């Protein structure tokens, strides 16, 4: 799973939508339009059906990453599954629509209004008199007060994560009328609608032991269309059942089973019919879309048509299994939306070359964000638009493309910025391995002879592809190259000379482009062959798991070599820039966990773009477990790619992400969640003003100003929203790719 920062407030509010990590024809973002520019047409993909067309009964088996370790959404280790359970079982005073606009939830509230702004902001909530906890007690001011006191940070006995907004409350008391709750703030607070969602009963919030311990494992009192029946440990699932005491619309489903299935195992689970709703990778979505009636319907169980070449037992077994999987996958549809999360390039401005804003801006201007978005998301069938804001997503109310504050791709401008910062072309620098240039010249000089030999072979009736060695490549020892089995260790040994390796890792001058291009093409072909072998092994049959692992290793090696050779053939390749004898080289961190293939390809494209302006990158792939903990949070990187969750309340939730780092008493740097270490006093001031501004239009202008300044600082470059690809049973309605929208759990079910 690609890296997503485990933020506190932001992650909790959107975690239900972040059940998957990382993966647009290109359209220019001009920054001249406001709301209309944000309507992508892919805000959500949910088959909406009226309740009278939905059957009562049934179970939805919904894939999650892991069973939650806590049911308390305000604890530091709360997960997306925690948030999903809370949404289905606890009060949410405001829900979100597909454009992230808060909507009054009439199941719990009759109204909620700002009644006073001076001398103190006062919000009065009028509760739905039918709203009750499962123990029969009505929702009341006592629940609001207990939650405020547990989360305002004044009592350290409550082990809560950061919960912005509660510390701004001065008092919580009963209102003047029945069923009213009056909340008074110490200062104006624009995002007051974010508070008290989810709302826990005072039995959980009123006492530290219940908050810290009991609420981790159970919710004995709830108030939603579902209640928690069990949190399983043996088979890794959580079961929610219809709550018969719920006063709202009766839930259509009997139960929701949240099944822990790792993303890499979901295709198998879907093919076995074990899931009804699951976030999937692009490759799985493509297989589902391709699984339609074909010859396997005419020839079941893998039997070939009459007259076909007889198949062996292994082939019949694999064919039968594949046909069965296709039949099962035809029961699913792929729901596609833009997820409320975005992939960004982070530039660490704490030290080194990137401490200079001119270098950061040069790096940003070397990148073609439109091409990166297209490469990342076009196959997913989603709009190919790069994201133009750090604070709002495409379909979010108030979205505006502010990227013009930094500027689009402009190689000349990038080169000028580097020169202005003292980084000059190193074209005359001595290469670390002098044999490299000699070897390159030999390759280029021998190219014509190789072509002549190829033409001669064709004249003699030979197949020009029988020897797939690139010019200058040694043949496989003891056998012809064409005899090597695809995916074998021997086949993978397409040798790159030491001199060529020195070129890739050191001096930037390119080999002859034709020579390197041929090698890159061959390496890419071998990578694809190895990947096919790995896929066949994964299906089962006669190929063993050991062979699958071997094929995958072969593919990884071949792809790495191909990427290196493509780097050499890039026509934009230029000499590495130097300053006071030091080359301009940046350490580029990429996640290496399952599902990070797209973000890795994005990183490789960025590296090639930087190569074109004389910036070398040392790509380092890090496993997800340590990516943030050991590298991003600690500042152990120059460049990095990771995904941030979006929020409906940017004035509050995104402020820690862009806050100017401040020295702490022990001499370290307090960065909050600003992992790029880039910020300004003015940006902090704009966020503070926006959080206090109750006028929506004024607040929008303040946030736009802040976003423009974040772009100009060039510590973070948003690239694209990632896709939300959901495999759903075709007869499942009112469920799918929700985007920002809060699910209506009582309406999810199966079509009559």
Automatic annotation (TrEMBL):
This is Solute-binding protein family 5 domain-containing protein. InterPro entries: SBP_5 (IPR039424), SBP_5_dom (IPR000914). CDD domains: PBP2_Lpqw. Pfam families: SBP_bac_5. Residues 293-306, 315-326, 438-483, 544-561 have a biased composition (Basic and acidic residues). One of its GO terms (molecular function) is peptide transmembrane transporter activity. It comes from the Bacteria. Residues 118-428 form the Solute-binding protein family domain. GO terms for biological process: peptide transport. Residues 291-326, 385-408, 423-492, 535-561 are annotated as: Disordered. PANTHER family: MONOACYL PHOSPHATIDYLINOSITOL TETRAMANNOSIDE-BINDING PROTEIN LPQW-RELATED (PTHR30290:SF65), PERIPLASMIC BINDING COMPONENT OF ABC TRANSPORTER (PTHR30290). It comes from Streptomyces oceani.
